[in-house]
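Good morning,

Attaching, inline, the backbone tokens for the sequence recovery test we're adding to the shared suite. The designed sequence is right after.
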């Protein structure tokens, strides 16, 4: 009889706890993160960001709400980081490369040119000691680096063959400013810094021989291969990293379980981004080949030659920044560990 009573009491207690769980969640303090991204909501990356938001809000049972501002609708893309650091926003979902004017170290978290071959290798660096090195940089500017979403290597567009390093000599192409110009100049190319919006006209008028624009699929959608019939795939020179960085004070104010949810959702976004664009680029490669575009897959020896030229420029670019030097040394050590750099 006593055993029956005890079991009944335990069952009643369990029922009470389970029954009150939704009420507890509903009564929990609510949090909001206001984040800006440069991607449009209808873009592939914008849609993936939308899934990221939904994951967080569902896993947190509504306790953490994400208010996303797409297409850099609050401030310019380059101003997003500072807007988050100063509290105008809470988070920056653009990329570290926008902040190289603030500190050259951001180059080595924003676009590690001539570094890793795949997003998976770069994520491996992050989760094997790289996060701690990068976090010092972000914390210095009042931000917390949560993670990356990397869409993969970019491909070049060219009116001439680009089968290897020798073809870069005297190759006149559109380049973004900064580290890339130094690397390609070291290989004999003639980079011309111009705005992204000017690429199509410059190729059409033969002002340039080629362009560094984006990944193969994006280049195809822009119509670049309607004008020029040479490209490299897979890419080797540039793999931009979009990041999620949160105002450190705001991040530290979140309960640990919500921090964990954001990090897990970010890791899912990173995985989905990498595989989504890997498939899209492969589809673009097949279509372009069928349409008569010649694709060049650089040999490992040629990739190493470019990587050596890139790393020679890394040191000069990093000079004067303790954080940049630390990041360069960390990347070099990990690339060597992976066996893709001497």
């Amino acid at each position: 009889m006593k055993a029956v009573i005890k079991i009944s009491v335990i069952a009643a207690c369990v029922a009470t706890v389970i029954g009150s769980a939704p009420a507890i969640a509903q009564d929990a303090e609510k949090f909001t993160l206001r984040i800006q991204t440069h991607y449009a909501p209808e873009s592939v990356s914008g849609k993936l960001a939308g899934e990221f938001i939904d994951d967080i809000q569902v896993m947190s049972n509504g306790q953490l709400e994400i208010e996303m501002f797409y297409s850099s609708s609050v401030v310019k893309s380059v101003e997003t980081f500072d807007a988050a650091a100063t509290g105008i926003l809470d988070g920056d979902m653009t990329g570290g490369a926008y902040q190289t004017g603030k500190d050259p170290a951001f180059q080595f978290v924003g676009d590690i040119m001539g570094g890793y071959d795949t997003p998976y290798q770069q994520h491996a660096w992050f989760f094997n000691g790289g996060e701690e090195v990068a976090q010092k940089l972000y914390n210095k500017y009042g931000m917390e680096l949560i993670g990356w979403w990397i869409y993969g290597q970019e491909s070049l567009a060219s009116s001439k063959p680009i089968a290897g390093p020798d073809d870069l000599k005297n190759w006149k192409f559109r380049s973004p400013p900064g580290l890339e110009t130094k690397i390609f100049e070291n290989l004999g190319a003639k980079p011309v810094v111009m705005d992204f919006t000017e690429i199509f006209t410059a190729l059409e008028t033969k002002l340039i021989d080629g362009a560094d624009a984006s990944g193969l699929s994006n280049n195809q959608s822009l119509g670049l291969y309607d004008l020029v019939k040479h490209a490299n795939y897979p890419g080797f020179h540039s793999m931009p990293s979009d990041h999620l960085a949160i105002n450190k004070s705001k991040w530290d104010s979140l309960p640990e379980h919500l921090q964990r949810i954001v990090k897990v959702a970010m890791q899912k976004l990173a995985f989905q981004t990498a595989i989504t664009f890997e498939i899209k680029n492969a589809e673009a490669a097949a279509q372009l080949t069928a349409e008569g575009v010649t694709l060049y897959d650089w040999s490992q020896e040629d990739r190493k030659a470019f990587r050596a030229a890139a790393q020679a420029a890394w040191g000069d670019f990093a000079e004067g920044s303790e954080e940049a030097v630390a990041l360069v040394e960390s990347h070099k050590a990990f690339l060597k560990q992976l066996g893709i750099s001497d």
